[in-house]
Amino acid sequence: MMSKKFFILGSGNVAGHLAPAVVNAGWSCSGVYSRTLKHANALAERIGSKGYDDLSQVMSVLESDRELDIVLISLTDNALSEVARMLTSEISATVLHTSGSTPMSVLASTTSHGVFYPMQTFSKERAVDISSTPFFIEAHDDLAHRRLIELTDDLQITHVREITTDERIRLHMAAVFGCNFVNHLYAMAAEVLGDTGVPFTILMPLLEETLNKAVSHDPATVQTGPAIRHDQLTIDRHLAALEDNEKLYEVYRFLTDSIQSYHSSNS
Amino acid sequence: MMSKKFFILGSGNVAGHLAPAVVNAGWSCSGVYSRTLKHANALAERIGSKGYDDLSQVMSVLESDRELDIVLISLTDNALSEVARMLTSEISATVLHTSGSTPMSVLASTTSHGVFYPMQTFSKERAVDISSTPFFIEAHDDLAHRRLIELTDDLQITHVREITTDERIRLHMAAVFGCNFVNHLYAMAAEVLGDTGVPFTILMPLLEETLNKAVSHDPATVQTGPAIRHDQLTIDRHLAALEDNEKLYEVYRFLTDSIQSYHSSNS
Q1: Which residues of B touch A133 (CB under 8 A)?
Q2: Does the beta carbon of A251 lie under 8 angstroms from any beta carbon of chain B?
């Protein structure tokens, strides 16, 4: 059997993890597009493919290749919107984007399309196990649905769920709260440790237990700390210690108030 | 050799984890105090001890027992301050409190005292491995120092560090950012998922990777998401989806601004 073929637009963190995983799953990659040829070539080299930086040329390739199964778009949301405007119904492949917050309808000019959204944070420095990453899919048409299932099957993804665009935007927002905002708090915790000489890594058992407790219970029911105890003595000691750091002072005060108001009317 | 003896004031989450661990390490517990006798008795029963709810009676016991090595105080910060006022130099044992944000000097009326602060979040429902919990200690005098080392040795605690009161307040504050505030964000992430039918547990691989990435790198350097990318399109989509939820809307906007201002002047 001939191997299935995909083309990928994007060479960033998501594309850099997804494309090699798809190739490892037995697919062949016919091309990698990036605005910067160097980046396109770097990813293409890793997966035995060819780099492109000319979007018009890429569109000709996509429209003429009748053996292409999937076009995967892993660009920033702004770049995705721009590229989407150039896609036409001449493309016979199914066009999938991987964005959490972009509606599927942005791909409406193509015949077959859908969404292939991995709920994970990808970074160049760290390997991620794609098969244990939850994927949320949305298919515009039967062909897109079939190809999404082929793709997730070939990648041996254990958690696949079909959701709508509106649900996906909520999921992506939950990820912003649980990942991006949480990392910002980790950064501030590290800054607070600052010149005590205690490294951030020492917080690991605490941070790990916080996560495990939240996941094994409902996080709202296991809230602890000075804010929910209305322990004003401790809150004042902390605010006094932060007086020379306006940014952290404001975040401490805002989230203390937020916890108190969240638990006064939600309980 | 006679086993070492301690008395514990407190029957909450910290006392409920520490006292059994100290007993398991070969110490005997001569008494458990709580304002509520039922709570004192419940913990006392688990560790073969005796419950008290009369603070004056407890003080007489502490002052007359010359074989007591350590008095451990694991009360709320407010209760600790109240109890501390009743302690006298008649007590021959070393008095230790376990509070992150209370100065050691609150125990100044006793001859030998110090601080034994575990950096962990304790809850009734979950077992915690005391030996892998980092402990931060502060000793007022040589006897206190010797007894703190005995105690941490007997508990086989792998990470023990001596720090000052000021440093401990900063550490405790870092724990508030990394644990209490983070859990609040987990609660809001769970609320955002709400009626999508996607359970909070599905976020686990993402939340775990966020934590592992932050600990293996400096969290400020691995910040991702729409805020740091200044991806206004996505931010607006999220805010629009939160318009009917004022609390989450405000937190989303505040932390997005916070990330942007943090990384504009800290970089």
Answers
A1: 205
A2: yes
> Among positive and negative, which fits the CA dihedral B242, B248, B254, B260?
negative
Taking 90 as the threshold, does the pLDDT of residue A3 lie above it? no
Q: What is the C-alpha separation between B192 and B190, in angstroms, rounded? A: 5
Mean pLDDT for chain B? 94
Best to test chain A binding among B181, B257, B267 (most A CBs inside 10 Å): B181
Which letter does DSSP use for residue A123 in this model? B
Could you give the dihedral angle defined by the CA atoms of residues A245, A249, A250 and A253, in that order, rounded to the nearest 10 degrees?
A: 180
pTM, to two decimals: 0.91
In chain B, residues with a C-beta closer than 8 Å to the C-beta of A223 are 180, 183-184, 187
* DSSP-assigned states of every residue in B32-82: EE-SSHHHHHHHHHHTT--EE--HHHHHHHHHH-TT--EEEE---HHHHHH
Query: Residue A267: its pLDDT value, please?
Result: 44
> Is residue A266 predicted with pLDDT exceeding 60?
no
- Coil, helix or strand at residue A224: coil
Beta carbons of B170 and A227 less than 8 Å apart: no
Would you put residue A197 in left (φ > 0), alpha (ψ -120 to 50) or beta? left
